[in-house]
Design brief:
rod-shaped
Amino acid sequence: MVDNKTSESVKLMANLVYDISNPNNSIMMNTELLEDVFKDAIALLKDDSGQLCEPLAGIPPDRIEEAVKDLFAGIKEGAKRIQDVSDNLKRFS
């Protein structure tokens, strides 16, 4: 009976790791792509003097690049934490 519960727990843990890892890998890969898209878009939105003239999403022009960089860093940090949890769970399954 205990071995059966242990076996079921291990299967559940393996499924959980799989269900967490796949979307998280997508988040990590897409974040890298979106960062590159953002850098290219910002270059297109700058005027001849290299300045952004209009706010984006309510963020003042002089703060946009820094604010979005912080947002991407937060996404990457969160995805890394999820990956670490997933990796730890793999060791137990």
